């Protein structure tokens, strides 16, 4: 009677499989390696998620920029560069990666480049200040985002060849859950353990910690056992997107959705300016940052079931309500800031505002994803996703220039403008055609 390998036993426990070698849609040669590959991918993905949180463009980098005295323009560019930088290279390199029989090397390259970018950010934070520090870190963020794009596009291919379809959701959910706990632990540390008036060294440590996580992730990912995959059929994604751009002219529903999604960027661009305002209110006290990290970490988990159920009933309504919630939160925050309300100086109260903003952002993200899937057909879905993502990537980069307003009028004024934009988005979204099936 053969003994079960410890890895297979743990895999059975985590996935509920009675037979670790049951495979559904992966190469037969990968079946025996599935338990091992499951945990290898889990470990590498977990490391990258933790590293992303340690270098968050919504929280860590805006606080760092405020500490360094970087211009508000650069704070406004953090989220657009981080998001668009991941998206745009995928369109350019997907076809080339498809031609490689083994693709794990692309993920490893992206992870190593990400580590290098974060390490150089730490050096810049330690040795530079003001605009020079800001521009240097922005340039390195471009490299970082492009590298994360390499990881993103290659990870999907490797996952599809090494872990069966019925186990991928379990893997990603487990990874996100553990990463969420790590993020919560970071927030608790900054809130209750770290010196509230710690200097730049705490940010250097966070960035270097992120770099180390990426290097460990690359080392772990190197041991995944990937079978050669098909190299044909890798069409040029950019050419496909350009050919499909005509959908914006011919499909009125899709055109209105892209306009609505562009307006909804008001919600995505807001968090860094809340961070700057919180930093100013707390006098740079790191406990304020810890509370924001905790609030951000629990916002999605608290609201996901609610937005999910509402999105199934009406994705349009989910987007509109989330945008309206973000707009109302922005107006309240601006009013408290301009009236010098003592409530805003309370770190817990400000964390509550940031929690509500995070809940709204989660609703916008879920709603617009569900709406596009429900609106599109199987023939048009891929083209609509490509066109929509490309347009939004460009619009997001342009929207990042709103930071100029922050240089002249302060973070509260930017929050006001973005709040008004979110309210406009809520009204515009309600003009979209209802595409959800009645439940």
TrEMBL record:
Keyword entries, A-Z: Membrane, Transmembrane, Transmembrane helix
Gene3D superfamilies the UniProt entry points to: MFS general substrate transporter like domains
Stored PROSITE patterns: MFS
Residue stretches spanning the membrane: 60-81, 106-126, 132-151, 171-194, 200-221, 258-277, 289-310, 317-337, 343-364, 385-405, 411-430
Iron among keywords: no
Keyword Membrane: yes
UniProt domain Major facilitator superfamily (MFS) profile: residue ranges: 202-439
Organism superkingdom: Bacteria
Annotated signal peptide: none
One Pfam family in the UniProt entry: MFS_1
Protein name from the UniProt record: MFS transporter
Protein's organism: Marichromatium gracile
